Amino acid sequence: MKEIKYVSTRGEGGKVTSAQAIKQGLCSDGGLFMPDSLPVFTPEYLEKLRGMSYAERAAAVMSLYLTDYTYEELLEDCKKAYSAEKFKGGCAPVKAIENLRVLELWHGPTCAFKDMALQIMPRLLSRALDKTGEEKTALILVATSGDTGKAALEGYRDVDKIKIQVFYPVDGVSRIQKKQMQTQVGNNVCVTAIKGNFDDAQSGVKKIFSDKDVSAVLEKNGYFFSSANSINWGRLVPQVVYYVSAYCDLLDFGEIRPGDKVNVCVPTGNFGNIFAAYLAKRSGIPIDKLICASNVNNVLTDFLGTGVYDRNRAFHTTMSPSMDILISSNLERLLYLAAGSEKTASYMASLAKDGRYEVDSDVFAKIKESFIGGFCTEDETRKTIREIFEKYGYLIDTHTAVGVKCAREYAARTGDTRPIITASTASPYKFAPDVLSSLTPDVPEDEFEAIEALSALSKTESPAPLSSLREKAVRFDRTVEKEEMTREVLRFAGIE
Ligand SMILES: *Cc1c(COP(=O)(O)O)cnc(C)c1O
Is residue 291 part of a domain? Predict the structure, then answer.
């Protein structure tokens, strides 16, 4: 098997192993890690994958990218990460609605798709520490506006040589999200509310990261800082797996024959999930178009329409908050593949300086070969949830609705009848009040009651991790001033 090394999208800093890339997160020149060559999924290889469980498929696919990990190591980790106990409804089942093949990525412990990566990534990091001879314990700091914090806590809990501290704004998360974090189990986790908003939490964490005195104290006590950031290669590569897996499933269903092309549609924020689908395409999965679905924060729709990326625009708070993003960090990886490191570095420099860049026409043409942009307003989101439920009795969440709307619109506009694998990124119950209000005007004030009302109305069951939440015991109820965040970290590390 060909050995793969990792290089920066901005061209500096040499080549490292995947273990080093996962441990380091970001390249020293500020770029993102990319493989120096892309593996190839041959038809024979796909044929072999068809007979496998999800965990086996995951280990097989990831082993082509993470060549300094053995297949046995990856299989051991994947079996734990993607166990039937953790993914009670299956890992990435495919449901048919019209010509959409809805890929349900939310059957994990926190009911959103980030579990697909965050259940395995901490194990990859733990092994990376061994492989790179690291003796210190990694201390992960996360500032969260809700979803990422919980998914990271579930992923990192009880993983060797790692501790995780999460900060959230005391009045800036939903009641369900707060309870999810306050009741977190695990012997290496700590959750603290801060008096302030999400930006305060995030700048607090950044300040601690860059505080040399704090780093020195931690180092003396056997720790180093690490982050659970969505641009880490260790979070991206597990996402390639489910697109490969979905293609295998469609072959198994007899809906396509080997070599037949499908389209993919992804509700997009940071461009991580859809970029994973593009990687699958580049490695030989027969994918024709990638439909990039945005909410009204449609900076990517404009980019894919004009070749100009411009973040200088109003920011909208929407029903699909995980897609309320104006800088889609992982887009840098696509630019690197289409334009090379030199141009990418210059685009990123103008993004940092002016908040915008325009790609060259040959680069734009390359991107347009595969990508199509679309977006969905708040009204259309509600309408799509209602229509899909009334027609098919199938519930989708607010993020998934954005994807479904754009996928159907693409099919209607082009007449393209190929199956569209459409990523479903959260359980409808995770956003119960907004899903319910799309179906009926009677929405209870209380979020837990909204979950029950949604269950009664749709005659479906809410996922156990959400419905059992009300009864769970609170473990973390501390609230501190934002100036006290450093002390909280040191206290958790047992220093002070
Ligand atoms: C994070 C998230 C997204 C966006 O995914 P990206 O990889 O950032 O594009 C979409 N839906 C949900 C529910 C999410 O949590």
Answer: yes
